[in-house]
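Example: Immunity protein 7.
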Amino acid sequence: MFEYHGWVTIQATASGDDDAALLERLVDRVHRAIRDAGDFDLVDLRWSAGMPMLHFGGFDKHGGRQAPELLDLFTRAGELAPGSYGLLYTWDDQDTENDNNFRVYRMARGQVTEREDPHLTPVAPTVLDVYEL
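Written out as C-alpha cells, the predicted fold is:
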C-alpha cells in the first residue's frame, strides 16, 4: 500500500508580498500541471483568505506506482511558483529499503528535499502494533 498526504502554500516569491496578477498566473500554471498529471485520489487547489493552497492525499493498493508522478507534481509546483513551501508525506510498504518508514519531502523556497520522518517512523510500533512483510 502506498499512502500520501501533503500540502503546498503557493507563492511567487519568498517575500510574501506577491503581485496579485502574477500569483494568479502561477496558480493557473499549477492548475494545468495538475490537469496533466496522473490520476490521484485527492489533489485540491483552492484559495483561502487570499492565498492559494494545494492539498494531496490518498492511497494506492498497488504500492508506489503513483510515487514518481506525485513527486513530480509536488516538485513542479515549486518550480512554477518558486516562493512556495509545504510538506509531502509518503509511506510505501513495498519499498524494501523504507517499508517501515514514512518519507518526508520538504518544499522551501520552491526547492524540494527529502527528509527523515521523526514523527511516525518507524511505522511499527509507532502507528501499528506490528508490521510484517
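Helices lie at 20-36, 67-80, 123-126.
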